[in-house]
Design goal:
Length: 243
Amino acid sequence: MKKIRLGILQTNHDKSVEVGDAFPDDAHRFRDLFDAQDDRFQYRIYMTIGGEIPEDLDEQDAFMITGSPLSVLDQHLFTDDLLAFIQRCDAAKKPLLGACFGHQAIALALGGKVERSPLGYNVGIEATQFHTRRDWMTPARDTLAMYVFHEDQVTELPEGCTLLGSSEKCPIASFSKGKHIFTTQAHPEFSHEFMACVLRYTESKMADSDATAAWDSLSNPQDGHTFGTWSTHFFREALTNDR
């Protein structure tokens, strides 16, 4: 089977000694997630954090936008170009996956709303309950427990989008549009070691009760690998429908 050419738009470049120098970056964490499957991709990483955006949608078969500690509510070097790129993908029905920052950026670009959560940081392992089924959600699961780390969240879906899943602290945790867009607020690409490291260096910014709950949740199993399988099926189905 021909490999899917997947363009990964990296919206983060952690230069810290504690985190950035100790672990692979966002794009490589997603590569590791997808490479654990039999159906592997051919990758091209775009350093969007530095302003690199695909010029031609046909450069790749599909694209994804990573997470980032940056807020989509702030103006960054790449903000306008990234939102315009998302709009081009939508118009062309180009397969596009968004995680965390990517999930929020897609919502903003298509006319939705993102706001700071009144609950503050949402950190740890949290279950997304899926209300709506899609054919590419195989193996079939009603709930996926995944790592989360965010303070902003989508509060209003763009027109034409469908709510797929919600979590306890995030009502719009996953959505889709047509057969070409799929998003999650979670971080299916995180490992336990990475999540623990990030939490260790950020818990001072959180309420003590939230930090304790986050640490406690890390003892629970997580389903990032299943989300990776769903993503592959999503890309395959989207590309089949595009032909």
